[in-house]
Write a structure and sequence with these properties.
- The chain is of the alpha/beta class.
- The protein has 5 domains: 75 residues; 186 residues, 3-Layer(aba) Sandwich (Rossmann fold), CATH 3.40.50; 196 residues, 3-Layer(aba) Sandwich (Rossmann fold); 60 residues, no CATH class; 101 residues, Ribosomal protein S10 (Alpha-Beta Plaits, 2-Layer Sandwich).
- The chain contains 21 helices and 25 strands.
- Helix 10 links the parallel strand 8 and strand 9.
- Helix 17 packs parallel to helix 18, helix 18 runs antiparallel to helix 19 and helix 20 packs across helix 21.
Length: 660
């Protein structure tokens, strides 16, 4: 319940009476006059908290006026709305031929009222969002509702503002950074039919809308749709397909870089493929340049040798190490001169990912996890991003007592510091988990950058997808290798997707765009296809590697994780389960790998062992045999003597998005 204040009839009379106002204090008179300006009739009211905040007035002065009968307070229920309001009316947009064809196909399916799945493959800037908007408008004309999923909370502000410009208060938002009350109100508005569209990350797929006609999954390839840290470990994209099939709704999976699995489903006609091969408004795809950072460092080293030879200075013990190449520096300088925007991606937060001894190579690691600690400059401490362990950085090496401790493997904080030194007059915004933990932080940063208050937006993968800023003409990738070198069969696909997506933030208007990608792996095949904007070529090459090793889409992956405080017990449990599972592997329909250490073998003092199961679609197309084998093995395991140890935890993750 919220409280509202209004002026009584008597109050209005007293204010106009000179003798009546003599008994009022200056603060009380100020409140009366402010209310008279905001309230046009006696029936109008003003919300108390916002009024007091707006006019810097006190609640005690207001209560005195109520006590004297000059004002009255009433209560009524008000639904809390999202903070993302549309600023401008939507522009009149005429769809191009490809957009119109895609819209027509989606509209036909929603009109018929049967389940249908579309894969909308449109290059960055091709106008996928406008197709969603027009399709939802047609769905609402049929008296139906819609859900729009976005992978990241950071994408919510721009998406919501754009949809609100078209649909106003028919839009509700659901995401984890809202307060419990805000989420409850959004849920009630959807349940009571007060809104027709719900937008949000993965949990929004469970919005209690009635008569759903369309579900949109934007950036369908994104791993953020998978809930991996708590049960149930669902993928919102897959839930969308299942929910739509039950209620006879239409699903549109949209992406510039579809997942290999979704594209395979489209090729095999399980989904209907719709393509948007061109950018809207004749905007061109950006020119992409690769910088070999190994060559860059050699060049810096040679220049340093020449400089030292000329000056006769001693050779420095520690060589200068910059995260920003000369090419990227010069391109940023040009944008600053032209007042154009720059987006920089470094998919690693903190100041430095590794603190290493220059003499002996000792690396500071977490006491609880088998990972290196990340240095955070703002709080001047080392932090583990897995368990939250914090310690002060040492001043001497614990192993060899050397004072030569250095930070390397750049994080966003270190890149920001270097940028500020190179461009002292530039306004730089950093967008990562450390700067967006507060409520509304994403929205605030994006609005600042969109309005031109900042020159450079630096961030992790939050800045790589879905953002649309016409003033951005340069995108820089500080290190393309952070995703590429992960021990995961999807690492190359993830690299191609991330780099293609972030490259697509440049040149989304009549201003030409440029992209600079820095890497130590310039010959990697994913980069070759990124430069050419060649999704089909990458998909073809990637599938050959997947086929050779029986990875999805040629198989179905199940990851079994066993964890506990005693490593030998964890290994014993994992081995026993693998034996039970092998007993039910009739005709070798699936492949069992492990048990083996997880890529990160210990987190929070808990040891982790993995079993990876590849279910071959050639011999088990529907997964029926593997499902049966897993259930039987699980039942055997639970009644066996080994399972009496309740300290060992088992997780079964079907279709995992990460193997770490």
């Amino acid at each position: 319940m919220e409280r509202f204040v209004g002026i009584t009839a008597g109050g209005l009379k007293i204010v106009t009476d000179k003798t009546g106002t003599a008994s009022l204090s200056a603060k009380q008179l100020f409140i009366i006059e402010a209310l008279r300006k905001e309230i046009s009739s006696e029936a109008d009211t003003v919300e108390i908290n916002s009024f007091l905040k707006r006019h810097h007035a006190s609640l005690s002065s207001l209560k005195t006026l109520v006590k004297n009968g000059l004002l009255q307070i009433s209560e009524r229920e008000v639904f809390r709305r999202s903070e993302y309001e549309s600023i401008e009316p939507p522009p009149n947009i005429t769809l191009n031929t490809n957009q119109q064809y895609a819209l027509n196909e989606i509209t036909k399916a929603t009109t018929i009222g049967t389940f249908r799945a579309f894969l909308l493959h449109g290059i960055t800037g091709s106008g996928k969002t406008q197709v969603y908007i027009d399709a939802i408008r047609n769905v609402m004309a049929l008296g139906k509702t819609a859900i729009v999923l976005v992978p990241e909370i950071s994408l919510t502000p721009q998406t919501v503002r754009r949809f609100k410009a078209h649909f106003g208060d028919d839009v509700a938002v659901m995401h984890s950074q809202m307060s419990i009350g805000e989420r409850y109100d959004a849920w009630r508005m959807a349940h009571q039919g007060k809104v027709k569209i719900v937008i949000g990350p993965r949990s929004a797929i469970f919005a209690p809308l009635e008569n759903i006609g369309l579900i949109v999954v934007d950036e369908e390839h994104d791993s953020s749709y998978k809930q991996y840290d708590a049960a149930p470990r669902y993928n919102a994209r897959d839930v969308a397909l299942v929910r739509a099939s039950h209620i006879k709704a239409v699903v549109v999976l949209g992406s510039a870089t579809p997942s290999a699995e979704s594209f395979a489903n489209a090729i095999h006609k399980k989904y209907t493929l719709l393509e948007l091969p061109h950018r809207v408004d004749t905007a061109q795809l950006p020119v992409i340049e690769i910088v070999d950072m190994a060559k860059e460092r050699r060049r810096v080293y040679e220049d340093l040798k020449i400089e030292i030879k000329k000056s006769a200075k001693p050779f420095p013990k520690r060589l200068p190490d910059s995260s920003i190449s000369q090419l990227l520096q010069s391109q940023i300088a040009k944008r600053l001169e032209r007042k154009e925007g720059t987006i920089l991606l470094q998919n690693r937060r903190g100041f430095s990912h590794v603190m290493e001894c220059y003499e002996c190579g000792y690396v500071e690691k977490c006491d609880n996890c088998e990972v290196s600690l990340t240095f955070h400059a703002t709080k001047k401490h080392l932090r583990c991003h897995y368990c939250g362990f914090v310690k002060k950085p040492p001043t001497i090496c614990p192993k060899c007592s050397s004072i030569e401790l250095r930070m390397h493997a750049f994080g966003t904080q270190q890149v920001q510091q270097e940028l500020q030194e190179l461009f002292p007059n530039a306004v730089i915004l950093r967008m990562d988990r450390d700067t967006t933990s507060g409520k509304g932080a994403h929205n605030k940063i994006l609005k600042q950058f969109e309005s031109g208050e900042a020159d450079i937006l630096l961030g992790t993968q939050m800045v790589a997808k879905g953002l649309d800023f016409p003033r951005v003409t340069l995108v820089g990738v500080i290190s393309a290798d952070t995703q590429m070198l992960l021990p995961d069969f999807r690492a190359s696909e993830g690299t191609f997707q991330l780099l293609t997506q972030v490259s697509g933030r440049a040149g989304r208007s009549n201003l030409a765009g440029e992209v600079v990608i820095q890497t130590l792996q310039p010959d990697h095949y994913s980069l070759k296809h990124v430069i050419l904007h060649d999704f089909h070529g990458f998909y073809k090459e990637e599938l050959e590697y997947r086929r050779e090793l029986d990875y999805p889409p040629f198989s179905r992956i199940v990851l079994l994780e066993f964890s506990g405080e005693r490593e030998n017990e964890v290994q014993h449990h994992a081995k026993k389960f693998a034996e039970f599972l092998a007993m039910h592997n009739q005709q070798n329909r699936f492949i069992i790998l492990g048990p083996a250490d997880a890529a990160i073998p210990k987190i929070k003092n808990v040891y982790r062992k993995h079993i990876v199961v590849k279910d071959l679609k050639s011999s088990d197309p529907s997964g029926l045999y593997l499902r049966s084998a897993l259930l039987k093995a699980k039942a055997q395991y639970e009644v066996s003597s080994v399972a009496s140890n309740r300290k060992i935890k088992m997780i079964i993750d079907v279709d995992p998005q990460g193997m770490m």
